[in-house]
Amino acid sequence: MTSSPFIEIDHVTFGYDSRRTILNDLSLQFARGKVTAVLGGSGCGKTTLLRLIGGVHPANSGRVVFDGEVINTRDKAQLFRLRRRLGMLFQFGALFTDLSVFDNVAFPLREMTDLPEALIKDIVLMKLNAVGLRGAAGLKISEVSGGMGRRVALARAIALDPELIMYDEPFAGLDLVSMGVAAKLIRTLTDVTGATTLLISHDVPQCMAISDWVVLMAAGGRLVAQGTPAELMDSTDPEVRQFVRGEPDGPVKFHYPAPPVAADFGLEVVR
């Protein structure tokens, strides 16, 4: 990857309680200025990984390193400073429905800077223009489509010119055209701004098309494989092949681990 990763996950183990481990001794590096996609089934810890990078939760063990600094969730000054350097696109946009498109994008600028309103206006219109929505600045959130809302959220995520942009399921619920537009925007923004991009998704084709590096995780926060898109698509590993090709049968099982059905109904288990 690189000798100087922007984000490093160093032997991180994490669980929300003692009953289930979400991430298990996970070590990853996210290269500076590149698009890294993290793929995996539901519940494998992808979104949890973003939360640890954002300092929402501390790791149970191991280190999360942000541009050379170990994240300390008890250090509020550090968290504020580091979060100022990242942008986040939430899974369903998380837009403020009582604010206009313009005011949604202006929100982080008004909250985290002392810029005059005239300059904020210029920045917001520039960011909206970058995602093709300058003409929608005055609309209410209820007046925009799902795909447009995702682009509004993207404009808000890049309002502060972040060095790290994290996307949580940016393609979820989008039609094919909107999905293609979103994917192109993610790739273009990375190339133009030089930001480090971390992309969490289930959408294999879109991720393979725009990513420089791909990480595949499995249940329990286990690292299955990582490499270039071409390397993962050509992999002969059964678990990798099943996921990237969407095959129903293979090492990844449909059912969450459970005791025999008969045991739940008080019936004798026949062996």
From TrEMBL:
GO molecular function: ATP binding
PROSITE patterns attached to this UniProt entry: ABC_TRANSPORTER_2
Stretches assigned to the ABC transporter domain: 7-244
ATP-binding is among the record's keywords: yes
A matching Pfam family: ABC_tran
Keywords from the UniProt entry: ATP-binding, Cell membrane, Membrane, Nucleotide-binding, Transport
Name by which UniProt lists this protein: ABC transporter ATP-binding protein
Organism expressing this protein natively: Hydrogenophaga bisanensis
Origin organism lineage: Bacteria, Pseudomonadati, Pseudomonadota, Betaproteobacteria, Burkholderiales
